[in-house]
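Encode chain A's predicted structure.
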Amino acid sequence: MKRPIDYAIKSCETMMRKFEADDLPPKGRFHYHQGVFLSGMYKTYELCQDECYFDYIKGWLDSLITPDGEILGIDGLQMDDIQPGVLLYPMIDRYEDPRYEIALKHLVGMFEGYPKTKSGGLWHKMWHPNQMWLDGLYMGGPILAEYAKRYKDSGIIDHVVKQVELMCESTRDSETGLWYHAWDESREMDWARAACGRSQEFWGRSIGWVPVAILEDLDFIDKSHPGYEVLSRIVIDLIESICKFQSNDGRWYQVVDKGEKKENWLETSCSCLFVAAICKAVRIGLLDESYLSQARLGFEGVVNSLIYDGDDIVVNNVCIGTGVGDYQFYCERPTSENDLHGVGAFLIMCAEAEQML
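Encoded structure for chain A:
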């Protein structure tokens, strides 16, 4: 294998052998774990046009969407369960089946009553009051941005732009340009610093979702809209900051700015997301092509870390799902092999790398 798409295809085939579509974990849940993985699979499908991938995605959606458009296994109390809605758009485009659009409009409608901080930022989860977490931009932004484009709702675009601006304002570190994992408006959490409410560390994967999400938002925002320039400026600044912390191996560390500490370790999913963001930012003209040298180094670092088990490809050194904590907390998090958000990040990287590297 030499081309990025070859790695993506092998990874998709590995996961399809392991799981029937409706068995993807957590089974019976409409959740971002499956959504991230299947989003990566759809990007692979767009490049190779193998219908088995499209059918697999449809199979998962059909296992959770009833004939009248009700979504089963969804928790309306968290943004994590909204993200898979991006998979409904290609179904709407291909099939004259009203349940997909009914389900989509239900998901988008969930934002109307969703709680916000005093400044208007969406809480990450209902049981995390007054908190904004970086990955919330990925869970909510792209589905809303595409909806706004399709249904000509400029107010939703304004909302998407505002969420990014608020997250940047609340979490960005002026010295490094990196964004802290989370922000607590109330300053009540033990991880929140009293002076600013920001968490204490720059966790890799949380940061990785941000440029990937913003770049997807930009796909659906007209360049004439003032928000396009705002988001472009923000994402350029973040990617340029991320690039300063790349290791000699090509990958990035679990705690991005502390690679020199022995407890820290090179983490695959954030490395994939950073490479994907660099490639796409160059592809759409936001970054100079010189950044592709770092993208190539990062891609090779990830590929060189893969494990092969017969016909299977194993994406390893992936941090499991993680809350907010201190440096020791992040460094002590367990790792997994071929978990869905790790493989999803890998597929997203391969799709972008295929187009640029």
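The mean pLDDT is 97.
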